């Protein structure tokens, strides 16, 4: 991923956060990823780590229309994904999509209430709505609107060791080509 593309993504995210009324901490920890695929406009995400303590984590994320965060799960992390602005579509699976047939029923918490759902189904969250994702539930998400501000509140976060993608070719952090000075320092560079 070119540094200029990362800088552009950060600027767009900053503007979206500002427009949605989100103030960032004095020294936010930025993360911009194309998951190692080199197609950020299609597959990628901008994240700001607001807090990553041993017991809990909070992130603010930005995604643009048709930009997917692909199917993945976590071994340990339990998370609430909350739509803050725009409309957020989330695909959910009760397990790995290669092992769980589409349509198998399971239960997720939506806005704190047990909700029946089917593997491979799409849930759309409006601003303020949330879904709780427990370890083993595969999930992908993308905006259904021009863009989306998303937050995540979770148990402790270990990006290097607790992200398991349905497509094993994906990596968590991008390879960066320096074509201009960095606007921010990324989590992967600290």
Strand order of the largest sheet: 1-2-3-12-5-10-7-8
- What is the overall shape? globular
Distance between the termini: 18 Å
Per CATH, the architecture is Sandwich
Mean pLDDT: 95
The residue fraction in helices comes out at under 10%
Let me know the number of strands. Answer: 13
Number of domains: 1
Question: Keywords, please?
Answer:
mainly beta; Jelly Rolls; eight-stranded antiparallel β-sheet
Structure description:
The chain has one helix and 13 strands, in the order αβββββββββββββ. With 190 residues, the protein is mostly beta strands. It has a single domain (3-175), classed as Jelly Rolls (Sandwich), CATH 2.60.120. Strands 1-2-3-12-5-10-7-8 form an eight-stranded antiparallel β-sheet. Strands 9-6-11-4-13 form a five-stranded antiparallel β-sheet, with no helix packed on it. The protein is globular, with a radius of gyration of 16 Å.
